[in-house]
Amino acid sequence: METVRRFFEFDQNSYFLLGPRGTGKSTFIKTAYPEALYIDMLQPDIFRNYNARPERLREAVHAHKDSGTVVVDEIQKAPQLLEVVHGLIEEKKGTQFILTGSSARKLRKAGVNLLAGRALMRHMHPFMAGEISEYFDLARAVQFGMIPVIMSSSNPGAALQAYVDLYLREEVQMEGLTRNIGAFTRFLEAVSFSHGSILNLSNVARECQIERKVVEGYITILEDLLLAYRLPVFTRRAKRATASHPKFYLFDAGVYAALRQAGPLDRAEEIQGAALEGLVGQHLRAWIDYRMPDCSLFYWRTLGGSEVDFIVYGKDRFLVIEVKNSTSIHPKDLSALKAFGKDYPEATRILLYRGREKLLRDGIRIEPCKEFLLSLV
Known about the structure:
The protein is an alpha/beta fold. It has 16 helices and 14 strands. It has 2 domains: about 15-125, P-loop containing nucleotide triphosphate hydrolases (Rossmann fold); about 130-375, no CATH class. Strands 9-10-11-12-14-13 form a 6-stranded mixed sheet, with helices on both faces. Strands 2-3-4-1-5 form a 5-stranded parallel sheet. A 3-stranded antiparallel sheet has the order 6-8-7.
């Protein structure tokens, strides 16, 4: 696959660019800013030098007076550099600083607020369907996800398993985020069953035989490493009692598929359904980040059991989206969207499915999932 033009918009200001490993942050930066002073903290010798003497960054920037852009890649490896960056931003008004990272944990602990107002917070996501256009294959995306480093592999299955083993397990241990890697491995497998569902910490703790507070800490680790997110319930102008707990998603459908252990009692359709829902969710998150920053993503569930997968809500948008892993639509598939429409007639209601036809039924747009994802540009 040739170099892909990302939907991420350039910014003239200094900014953090956060995203999980393998999502293409470094490739994007090197392509977009070829003349920048580039400091890669993943290089052992560079890391040692800057970690031992953070003021070295000031010396490097002063030595490259003609560089209008300074990039520090994976800055969470040496968060003490933030104080130096803070001073340089104040001192060198015409210089843009881009700070990439795959973990918000260390940045937050190091006082990322030092740069509040001086550096924007931006995110890089896995590929969107519209970014790879004719290369997008829905079935393949459900199976292997959309992480660039996985999609570019000749053996995506093996690459995905290596990603899970090396990053989700070993990197967590290497960073000292947990001492019991065995318990964390059991947790990863157990929490994968919560993908696309309301998160029940007690059930996860019981499944992997660890304490509930430990599970809470592990969930926080996944969120800090940008590997998972929780989706809040939509409660604005609620006319019915709604659920109070968020839904849980891993950041990429392929990561979910790799972690989700399947056995004789598991139905392939159930696993694929959760993967498809997650794939739509990760696209909506990226689309909002790149194109609709005034919007937020929610889900809706009443205590009576009606549930809609996704709600995009913002100043000028109110989209309600239900995802079905089927090639045909039955009347009961529309019931939750109909219930939502009664409470919120202003909303545009969409049902996504694996079929090929576009339909309009009872005011609900029924669209092929692949076409919808490609339309998010």
